[in-house]
UniProtKB/TrEMBL annotation, chain A:
It comes from Psychrobacillus lasiicapitis. It is found in: Cell membrane. Residues 8-260 form the ABC transporter domain. One of its GO terms (biological process) is peptide transport. This is ABC transporter ATP-binding protein. One of its GO terms (molecular function) is ATP hydrolysis activity. The lineage of its organism: Bacteria, Bacillati, Bacillota, Bacilli, Bacillales. Belongs to the ABC transporter superfamily.
UniProtKB/TrEMBL annotation, chain B:
It is a multi-pass membrane protein. This is ABC transporter permease. Residues 95-324 form the ABC transmembrane type-1 domain. It comes from Psychrobacillus lasiicapitis. Its main location: membrane.
Length: 339, 334
């Protein structure tokens, strides 16, 4: 397969919130990229900066108090952080679209499905006539697997179930053929069976339309099922990055190991499910050292003093942990050998 | 929908009946005798008694009340004791005058109040927000009679821009058709008079609009602030919609229901409670009509005047309830 081009690249992104308690960097020097047609997962606990990262890409960080304080977001090589609000409006929905966690409340309850879909189209396809717009809206509703699409256009969101509404949200996001779709916890609020349907739909649409997807989730199951590559975030930082295969077979960062260990496995009966001790630190409270140090089982002196960089442990795998620093590896190997 | 309206109208009957009873009893509890007031202090006892018999005041209260009710059900609002005219004929010009003024005031209050509330919520904690809310606070706490007097002094006497009393030029009276003068002058094509009528509306209109405007602004702001945090607002922005349309299309429609309630209540209050403004600006409205009737103990006028105002009040509220259903498809009437 030919090497796909990078469509969206986040470089050294820092998004901070200016609160009464000081400046809190919610996303702290984050780097990752998405290739054309790829599904990238971003995993992490609540409050680790996943959603703020996605809102930063959309230019929708609530401001004040939030602000992108450094870094670049390159879409097709152009830096979105330098775009004016007017330029960003042309990107939103058109080049980069987004769907949200809460399908129940993400559609405006007082406008019909048709009205909201048509709005999404006419904002970007100004030269289309009414007929074309309507045809496109109906086509999209069919594409996301909704029955009786024509009548659905006249329905209000409250007449639809949660799963149907999320399908409508997906249809609305993809209606202008965006290059990147950001899905912020798209299945979290849904029943398990509906979750599976929606994930399947998203995978199919990704294959058919070649839209790159950034799948933001806290659910490793979702990642394993849908994504090609994963970025693991912890307390505003990327701690591990790699292909799904690499991450699940060979998790390197102690946090990732902990996450995978805490997924219940139906095949084995365990006495007690593993859980990572402690809590996620409040953003901005840890100034020095690795942010995971306080909860890490493999912590050693250096962890609380220095900030670990991302170590490239193999071609498709990066880890932000001193255990993978070449020097440390040697030291640890020696101690292992002597004992 | 029609069934709902029918049901609501039926519910009106006990409400209005109860109200007529309360009003009937209260006005008779106030000291004073209509016959005495009409005939003056020097009237003889015999003359007063004769007039009482003529007015039916010698009957026991329940007989008087049922006579009045029977009249009401036949569409008869009674006859003024003072002018000996049917109240139904007399009341309309006053009611129209008040209705016109109240509507004018509510339109000002809604246009300014709703927009001020929206912009305050949109730019929360901005200088506009603070300024608008301070003005709204002053507006709510302002005594209307004082504001009215200040308006008359500044715009009427000092600057001489606007008339300070009445609803038309005395030397150029409007020929009444509906008694809603703005409508009448337009119907007759008398645009010179329309200008005059509008000018007469301005000062009392502003005085009357101040409090509703402030209440509407504060209500709109808080309602908008809540809606602006909704997920669908973020969705609308994520589509690439302009902030202006996000606010005025997506947010406003969701925020408007509590505001509609307030507008309805305020309109109802203005219809009945404009006595102060009507007095200051010599506006020949229903408030003054009833007030004068109270001075003369003109029982039928008081009873029917209050009944008509109460009827308007409930009708406006019914209208607002129907509007809810038009705004929000989730509200069903059955």
């Amino acid at each position: 397969m030919a090497e796909r081009e990078i469509i969206l690249e986040v470089k050294d992104l820092q998004t901070s919130f200016f609160t009464d308690d000081g400046v809190i960097p919610s996303v702290d020097h984050v780097d990752f990229h998405v290739k054309e047609g790829e599904i990238l997962g971003i995993v992490g606990e609540s409050g680790c900066g996943k959603s703020v990262t996605s809102l930063s890409i959309m230019g929708l960080v609530p401001s004040p108090p939030g602000k992108i304080t450094s870094g670049q977001i390159l879409f097709k090589g152009k830096d979105l952080t330098k775009f004016s609000e007017k330029e960003m409006r042309k990107v939103r929905g058109n080049d980069v679209a987004m769907i949200f966690q809460e399908p129940m409340t993400s559609l405006n309850p007082l406008f019909t499905i048709g009205n909201q879909l048509v709005e999404a189209i006419t904002l970007h396809k100004k030269d289309w006539n009414k007929k074309q717009v309507k045809a496109r809206a109906v086509e999209m509703l069919r594409l996301v697997g909704l029955p009786r699409a024509e009548e659905l256009m006249k329905d209000y969101p409250h007449q639809l179930s949660g799963g149907m509404r999320q399908r409508v949200m997906i249809a609305m996001a993809l209606v202008c053929d965006p290059k990147v779709l950001i899905a912020d916890e798209p299945t979290t609020a849904l029943d398990v069976t509906i979750q599976a349907q929606i994930l399947k739909l998203m995978r199919e649409l990704n294959e058919r339309l070649k839209t790159a997807v950034i799948m933001i989730t806290h659910d490793l199951g979702v990642v394993a099922e849908t994504c090609e590559r994963v970025v693991v975030m912890y307390a505003g930082k990327v701690v591990e990055e790699g292909t799904v295969d690499a991450i699940f077979r060979n998790p390197q960062h102690p946090y990732t190991k902990g996450l995978i260990a805490s997924v219940p496995d139906m095949r084995h009966k365990k006495q007690r499910l593993y859980s990572i001790p402690g809590n996620v630190p409040k953003p901005g409270t840890i100034k020095n050292g690795c942010r995971f140090a306080a909860r890490c089982e493999s912590v050693f002196g250096r962890c609380t003093e220095e900030n670990p960089p991302l170590y490239e442990t193999s071609a498709n795998h990066k880890t932000r942990c001193f255990l993978y620093d070449q020097k440390e590896v040697e030291v640890h190997d020696k101690t292992a050998a002597t004992s | 929908m029609l069934r709902y309206i029918g049901k609501r109208l039926l519910q009106l009957i006990p409400v209005l009946l109860g109200m007529t009873f309360v009003v009937f009893m209260i006005i008779r509890a106030i000291p004073g005798n209509p016959a005495q007031v009409i005939l003056g202090q020097l009237a003889t006892k015999e003359a007063i008694e004769a007039l009482e018999i003529k007015l039916g005041l010698d009957q026991p209260w329940y007989t008087q009340y049922f006579d009045y009710l029977i009249g009401l059900f036949q569409g008869d609002l009674g006859e003024s004791m003072r002018t000996v005219q049917p109240v139904a004929n007399e009341i309309w010009p006053y009611l129209a005058a008040t209705f016109e003024l109240a509507l004018f005031a509510v339109i000002i209050a809604v246009i300014i109040g709703v927009n001020a509330g929206i912009i305050s919520a949109w730019f929360q904690n901005s200088w506009f927000d603070y300024l608008a809310m301070v003005i709204a606070l002053i507006g709510v706490s302002m005594p209307i009679f004082w504001l009215g007097l200040m308006e008359q002094w500044l715009f009427g006497i000092e600057l001489q821009w606007l008339p300070t009393s009445g609803r038309e030029e005395v030397r150029n009276p409007v020929a009444a058709i509906t008694n809603l003068y703005v409508l009448d002058t337009i119907l007759q094509g008398r645009f010179d008079q329309l200008g005059q009528v509008l000018k007469h509306l301005v000062l009392p209109g502003i005085a009357l609009a101040t409090i509703p405007m402030a209440i509407i602004a504060r209500m709109t702001r808080s309602s908008m602030l809540e809606v602006m945090r909704s997920d669908f607002i973020r969705t609308a922005r994520a589509k690439g919609q302009k902030m202006f349309w996000v606010v005025y299309k997506h947010a406003l429609k969701n925020a408007i229901i509590p505001v509609l309630t307030v507008i309805g209540l305020q309109m109802g209050l203005l219809l009945g409670g404009a006595i102060l403004t009507e007095t200051i600006f010599s506006w020949p409205g229903i408030g003054r009509y009833i007030y004068d009737a109270i001075q003369y103990r003109d029982y039928p006028v008081i009873q029917s005047g209050i009944l008509v105002v109460a009827f308007m009040f409930v009708m406006i509220n019914l209208f607002v309830d129907i509007l809810y259903g038009l705004v929000d498809p989730r509200i069903k009437y059955d």
